[in-house]
Amino acid sequence: xxxxxxxxxxxxxRGHWLFGNTEEYDRDRNGFLxxxxxxxxxxxxxxxxxxxVSSPEQVHALLTRTNKDFLAxxxxxxxxxxxxxxxxxxxxxTTTRRAGWQGLHRRVAEAHAGRxxxxxxxTVADGEMDVLATMTRFFGRATADFCLSADAAGVPEVLAExxxxxxxxxxxxxxxxxxxxxxxxxxxxxxxxxxxxxMSQIVRGRxxxxxxxxxxxxxxxxxxxxxxxxxxxxxxxxxRGIMLAALGVPASALTWIxxxxxxxxxxxxxxxxxxxxxxxxxxxxxxxxxxYTEAFVKEVLxxxxxxxxxxxxxxxxxxxxxxxxxxxxxxxFSLYRLHRDARWxxxxxxxxxxxxxxxxxxxxxxxxxxxxxxxxxxxxxxxxMMQLTLATFWLVRTMEIxxxxxxxxxxxxxxxVPRDLRVRLRRKVVRQSx
Length: 434
Ligand code: HEM
Known about the structure:
CATH architecture: Orthogonal Bundle
Number of strands: 12
Bound molecules: protoporphyrin IX containing FE
Strand order of the largest sheet: 1-2-8-5-3
Distance between the termini: 76 Å
CATH class: Mainly Alpha
Strand content: 5-15%
Helix content: 40-55%
Oligomer: single chain
Number of helices: 15
Largest sheet: 5 strands, mixed
Radius of gyration: 22 Å
């Protein structure tokens, strides 16, 4: 990395002679990034091949130049750094993504929203609970329903196994290669194969029925009907990618929502007023009918973005903010720090849903990115907002939330989650009119 100014690399902490900064980073990931930002400014070196950027312009450039100069491809396992193979994977993914994008259109989302209430009732019941585990079950079923509707039986369980096997690998700073003789690696490979095998069975089954009546209103139906003529393998991998992306991240967001509901009675009161204003017979409300609830969800995603750290691999020699980068270098940024930077946000550490309701309330450009940006922006942005807003509405309307352990002790080792949050949910008594 060479700067236009002549410096070889951005400044940064020297770290241990053998382990670099990994040990200190792993002790307190967010604290480490915050200290380095304060000390070295908006760009610093984490190690000889990794830089961390922090300004909205640098982050915007990194995200919008993804696919062209940077790559978003990654795996929980280490492998030889072959940027051309990664670029070929990116191209294949992008073709499927384009066809899949249509699958996230309104009719499919509305059909899914109609079924989501039942999924919510079956998974989020009265009683004491580990919130993250419950919300993971809810989104496992929700995402399987959205992708496969009536063919989803058995999928949430196999998906959960794959997610549970990825988790310990993605928490490690040091990646293991696929041939490493460890239970963790073996469990991951086995669960991935099982999930892809199940997808393959379902895709083949559905292909046989193509042309018999109305196409099914789910993502698989749209992919099979696409004019892009996707191969089975393309569809199976895309479905797996979508289901993984649409499980852990929204589950973490909903867990933070429950935390804020239990910690902020004033906000809960306003949410309850809004939920009470929707008639029982009005069916599933649209996000636009719940402006305060939507503002609350946006604000929770600002304070607690589940994908708190985003990384890219440099595809070919290029520059970013004047720093020369070589193919295979890494660039990181913390979405969590960007969302709480006092240069762009007033009261950055406080939950203020009202900031999204004020006229002219648009944030400073490129400072609010809970769904990313550029060619690899989240494909589930609208769907995710809809699911989170409806789940908040149902929670507030039907349940009382009593905290029963765990504080908002944020865990930054994988997705950003509150460590061990537990609550007791009590179904509200609905008074019958005489
Ligand atoms: C509700 C909360 C959600 C949040 C906060 C969220 C956040 C994100 C973010 C930040 C990224 C970009 C990561 C990067 O740039 O490296 C992303 C990518 C992605 N998300 Fe979401 N997501 C959510 C829900 C969903 C849902 C419901 C789906 C499924 C339909 C989904 C599917 C995806 C996919 C497939 C990608 C990868 C896109 C690509 O690389 O081309 N997400 N998400």
